[in-house]
Amino acid sequence: MDAEKDDRWQYTQQHSDLSNITTYLELGDTISLRSEFKMDEMEEELKCPVCGSFFREPILLPCSHNICLACARNILVQTPDAESPQSSRASGSGLSDYDYLDLDKMSLYSEADSGYGSYGGFVSAPTTPCQKSPNGVRVFPPAVPQPPAQHHLLGHQGSLPPIPRNSCITCPQCHRSLNLDERGLRGFAKNRVLEGVVDRYQQSKAAALKCQLCEKSPKEATVMCEQCDVFYCDPCRLRCHPPRGPLAKHRLVPPAHGRVSRRTSPRKISTCTEHELENLSMYCVQCKMPVCYQCLEEGKHGTHEVKALGAMWKLHKRVYYLSLEFYMGRTLQNTMINLGLQNACDEAIYQLGLDMEDLEEMEEDAGLGNGGLGRLAACFLDSMATLGLAAYGYGIRYEYGIFNQKIKNGWQVEEADDWLRHGNPWEKARPEYMLPVHFYGRVEESKEGAKWVDTQVVLAMPYDTPIPGYMNNTVNTMRLWSARAPNDFNLMDFNVGDYIQAVLDRNLAENISRVLYPNDNFFEGKELRLKQEYFVVAATLQDIIRRFKNSKKGFSGPVSFDSFPEKVAIQLNDTHPAMAIPELMRVFVDIEKLDWDTAWAITKRTFAYTNHTVLPEALERWPIGLLETLLPRHLQIIYRINQGHLDEISALFPEDMDRMRRMSLIEEDGGKRVNMAHLCIVGSHAVNGVAEIHSNIIKTDVFRDFSELEPEKFQNKTNGITPRRWLLLCNPGLAELIAEAIGEEYVKDLSQLQKLNELVDDDTFIRDVSKVKQDNKEKFSQYLEKEYMVEINPSSMFDVHVKRIHEYKRQLLNCLHIVTMYNRIRKNPKAHFVPRTVIIGGKAAPGYHMAKMIIKLITAVGEVVNKDPVVGSKLKVIYLENYRVSLAEKVIPATDLSEQISTAGTEASGTGNMKFMLNGALTIGTMDGANVEMAEEAGEENMFIFGMRVEDVAEMDAQGYDAMTYYQKIPELKQAIDQINSGFFCPKQPELFKDVTNMLFNHDRFKVFADYEDYIKCQEKVNELYQNLREWTKMVIKNIAASGKFSSDRTITDYATEVWGVEPTDLKIPPPNEPREALDETARALREK
């Protein structure tokens, strides 16, 4: 208690200096207050200790402390007449200087306090719960009865009642209890001087604020948007912040208030902006904003329609992310981090004598994706939950995910990924929402319209997986569909004894969700794949429409779909779910009986499409014959969509038949096919690429005709990664170091990493960053030595190239560099050489012969290099077996050099490059995909950029690429190719790699030889810098500081505001244990109405 008294005394003395400020201003002293007080300290002096805002109508208590008049009303406590101690008037003395210290029996300062205190100043005074104001001071709620309700739903209007007699007030700073006389709070003097100080201070702050968007001479700011965090003048506000559209819901405040809100710690958005201690529990439909119970009592929304916040949440626009791949990885640790439970769980497991890391290693990776596309979808789900969006992920619950890769004698061998063999504790089956999906059949024309009849039915069983947001009590849902056969057997077959065939037919139906197609960036037109694509979209759209209709319950008459695009946004992740467009048209026209034009307008406003590749072999083109058999009604709808589309083209370009051929949904070269990318573009209101360079390519090259027709439809949304998994989870040492340097807010606002630029020359920070990297390398070295029986030098440079194996990603270029380094060491063993451990990993599609040959070549080269005693520890080559999410979480934090070396113009974006950058690896790469924007953010001087640019590649394509020219003029390249071709790395099968060298000379679309020389020179620059640890680490810090743009939170915010028409929020839903009296009371009033 003595220490507590000392703390209170210091707090009182600290705030007693407020009288000095008022004295200065009363005497008209011209001494600058800035020289006497720091700006932050002065702002704190001018804030009420209860509400944490600037004083409004302050009153002066007898203890010399000030408080807002409204706040004083909130902390009054009524005392019983019989027990009230003798005291003078409110303006006189209260209890003695020390009596007040014994009033509270539970310490108001206790950190273990649950948020409730007890008030025991009088013998029979009731115990009253206390609450906590935003600045941390606990205050008492009024014990007097609440004033009668003023809202029209509560059926009474009136004014606030007078303060009852026998009330007392406890000063929130010194905790002295003061009794009120019959004048109540009017007995305290109003501090007009302090009120004047506040007004003048706010005016002086506002006068200095200028518009942040004026280009030449900034005008004076008139408002500040709290969501945009920007000060606007009137012209810029009208131009950049229109009063209509999604920005209309933003909160505009006077510049002075905006300046203050920037400097203070952010308030929980779950509390009312006008009543700091009230939770938002209702929603005003007219004002389109959440309100609290006290707002209703004060009659501010008396004539408006007000609904419960939970009910309105269900009416808000929902986002549906359709993807055939969700590469989730492991869930346990990610969930603990997002819920803030990791430390508690670690301690609990330790107390049981177990190791949490061992438990985490037991979890299977949910490998329901091939690579970047599926992993991007998983990052997006995390960000949508963290940003508070009402969003759902829809996909397929594959029984077997991406295959497990085994390397046997240097060859890739595929094994089934039976990830569900022990069950999945994170999912919940929802059989009550099982839905039918139809295939095959025929189309009948009738007076009512077309009917799809005689179909085969497969049932779609949903499995829900929770997706928790980061520390915001928001949990979204990923719903994955599993195929089930109907229970009704073919009775005729059953009766004649063909029971076995009936059971086998059931298995055929359930094969739809049996296995993930393992092809990445390659289209394979198989019937089962088309069944999978239609299966997921048909079940999902039924679910979406059911949810939309449920939101319309209570409305009389048939359901209107006019508001469907205002309540539903569907994002197509590549062309795989493209059949959703004709399926939604079928539902609207055939089932809901909408006319074609209305249905088409609604459909286009609902869908948006993300393109992920420009490689022609990856673009889906389904044969007409297959569609006619499997989905006959949908083919009719596609034909009609195409007819309307071509009519529009013909009207605009009447003589341009070639343009009509290029833009048609139906391709006729080499057999009729439906171009699914064209269908997505025509049926969507927005089309985006996933990096600036990729978006420009699809606008100016791949989909140029469509871009010229509707330029406003095409956008860019650069990909991002979630910092929760790819920093907090996988690299806790670096995450903690950053938090110590700049605070923890960067986890939800990665742009704050820019603050690290201030520490680039800080020796202590440089040393700490270097130590974290070395610790990660030593840990990963132990893993490699255990798994691959190869001794690793942890001080060597970890040169990492991990991604799907594909010719355009140019693992062959890296392999040629390995051979070149090997030859240099062999040529001059005593020369200085920077030790390097080259780590390559990735899976090849089972049917991709060249990719499998590349893996064999790399493993063969590695076997020779690792066993050569001349090389020793100077160079090691490791091929990571079965590269997956959980393995990426180990290797990425330990990486020094990240290889991103695809041919310019072939990689859409890439996200691995972002993960390495965030975790302190430097990048060697071409100007391709997101590398371009990484170089813009960090500066090209802080990356190792080499090779041809997009325009150089185009010029070479026009002139013709001759690999032999480079082979003949570059001696080291010639030596390496000759070794591969002659069987040096595979003496038992000298002809083994002939296919590889033949491809490099005659069929190399990705021009490996053209970039070889520049690549080798760039690697020499890497070696030179790596020898200077301080300069290397400084560049690492600059890269980490520049990685803020590549957060998936930023990407999803762009999608939400520019494509989906929804607003992200940092609203933190109150936890279940938080008091909900106001919400319950309001709900009861609504029910009684």
From TrEMBL:
Enzyme Commission identifier(s): 2.4.1.1
Sorted UniProt keywords: Allosteric enzyme, Carbohydrate metabolism, Coiled coil, Cytoplasm, Cytoskeleton, Glycogen metabolism, Glycosyltransferase, Metal-binding, Phosphoprotein, Pyridoxal phosphate, Repeat, Transferase, Zinc, Zinc-finger
GO biological process: glycogen catabolic process
Superkingdom to which the source organism belongs: Eukaryota
Keyword match Cytoplasm: yes
Catalytic reactions on record: [(1->4)-alpha-D-glucosyl](n) + phosphate = [(1->4)-alpha-D-glucosyl](n-1) + alpha-D-glucose 1-phosphate
GO molecular function: glycogen phosphorylase activity; pyridoxal phosphate binding; zinc ion binding
One cellular-component annotation, GO: cytoplasm
Region (Disordered) location: 1066-1089
Composition bias, Basic and acidic residues: 1074-1089
Alphabetized InterPro entries for the sequence: Glycg_phsphrylas, Glyco_trans_35, Pyridoxal_P_attach_site, TRIM9_Bbox1, Znf_B-box, Znf_RING, Znf_RING/FYVE/PHD, Znf_RING_CS
The B box-type domain, residue ranges: 206-255, 267-309
One Pfam family in the UniProt entry: ANCHR-like_BBOX
Subcellular location: Cytoplasm, Cytoskeleton
Annotated transmembrane regions: none
Cofactor(s) essential for the protein: pyridoxal 5'-phosphate
Enzyme class: transferase
Family designation: Belongs to the glycogen phosphorylase family.
Function: Allosteric enzyme that catalyzes the rate-limiting step in glycogen catabolism, the phosphorolytic cleavage of glycogen to produce glucose-1-phosphate, and plays a central role in maintaining cellular and organismal glucose homeostasis.
Quaternary structure and partners: Homodimer; enzymatically active. Interacts with PPP1R3B; recruits the phosphatase PP1 which dephosphorylates and inactivates PYGL/glycogen phosphorylase.
Protein's name in the database: Alpha-1,4 glucan phosphorylase
Organism of origin: Oncorhynchus mykiss (Rainbow trout)
